[in-house]
Amino acid sequence: MELTQIGFLGFGNMAKAIARGMLQSGLSPDQIMISAKTDQTKEEGATNFGIHTGTNKEVVAKSRVIIVAVKPHVTKEVLEEIVTEWTDDKILITIAAGISMDWIQHQFSSHAKVVRTMPNTPSLVGEGMTAWSVNQFVNEEEVQAIGRLLRTFGKEVLLDESLQDEIPAISGSSPAYVYTLIETMALNGVRSGISYDQAITLAAQTVVGAGKMVLETGKHPALLRDEVCTAGGSTIEAVLTLEDEGFRRAISRAMQACAEKTKQLGAK
Questions:
Q1: pLDDT tens across 90-149, in order?
Q2: What is the fold of 172-267?
Q3: Rounded distance between C-alpha atoms, residue 92 and residue 54, angstroms
Q4: CA-based nearest residue to 51, from 63, 61, 90, 92
Q5: Strand 128-134 relative to strand 154-158: parallel, antiparallel, unpaired?
């Protein structure tokens, strides 16, 4: 089976990234419909993406897959609005951090098919990373179809929902960490006399290449790091300085703070 009619409830940055990735992968604009809080956002969707717009209820009525892309604190209000349009052949996908499938299930009081996801913004360029979980009402054929849909804008990993609160720290929020790294590397390049544009290209492509090396070689990151270091060379000096300055500790603490905040959001 293929999931050919996709509806977005909310069309912020994450939803735009996902929709753009879907369109770039070959999905037709006629297969996507959005609702949004403001007319300006709807107009942007129609003008920049060529997709149809409507109310929350209209989107649900005309879509097989509904992606709830609103802030966590607005989710309950949106679900209460669309429950009258819901039928159990539809699939609801949520991208909000901290909201459990059981909680969503309770809002519908039915056999609603629910998928919990945590995508990230590189979906905009087809390089997203989405961790996802399904409830007991999503059948195997639908699981396969959802996986194909998620791969239209990047890679995907299906996992147990008990691990979902850890995902924002690893892949959902972590592009922000990487952007900070790229910016810092580039600014130091500028300090050395390299133009800003060149420094950004050097730093960003290095991050892209390093990630691709991990994925395509299958080698442990520590082994790849050691292959860059030569005895008595400059790279090992840089690596040891990172260790001395608490590079790992800073990343770990940032990830722990992110995971804790995610759990707090889910508890509200």
A1: 999 999 888 889 988 888 867 899 999 999 989 888 899 999 999 999 999 999 999 999
A2: ProC C-terminal domain-like fold (1.10.3730)
A3: 18
A4: 63
A5: parallel
The label of the residue with tokens 């996986």 reads: 147
Residue ranges covered by each domain of the chain? 6-160, 172-267
Distance CA 254, CA 109 (A): 37
Q: How many CB atoms lie within 10 A of CB 28?
A: 11
The widest CA-to-CA distance across the chain, in whole angstroms, is 69
- What's the whole-model pTM score? 0.87
Backbone angles phi, psi at 261, to 5 degrees: -65, -40
CATH number of this structure's domain 6-160: 3.40.50.720
- What six digits make up the tokens of 203? 């730093």
| pLDDT tens profile 151-178 | 988 999 999 999 999 999 999 999 999 9
